[in-house]
Known about the structure:
By secondary structure, the chain is mainly alpha-helical. It has 3 helices and 2 strands; from the N terminus they run H-E-H-E-H. The chain has one domain: Transcription Regulator spoIIAA (2-Layer Sandwich), CATH 3.30.750.24. The longest helix has 16 residues. The radius of gyration is 13 Å and the shape is globular.
Amino acid sequence: MDATGAYHLKQLVRHLQAQQVRILLSGVGEEVQGELEKSGFHKLVDKSNILANIQEAIYKSREILSLKSQGM
Length: 72
């Protein structure tokens, strides 16, 4: 991912967050992680929501939905 890609991803995330959409990323490689960090992406999406693989993302999604159903 280059700087333009990071910029557009940040714009998309801002748009989705304005609509109360929770963002999780899955399978982000080290090189892309580095570009995201340089772009300040982690100010928008907490590192705990950037997951190594789809299984972790599914687990995190279920965790979020469980907390939401409990009113948290």
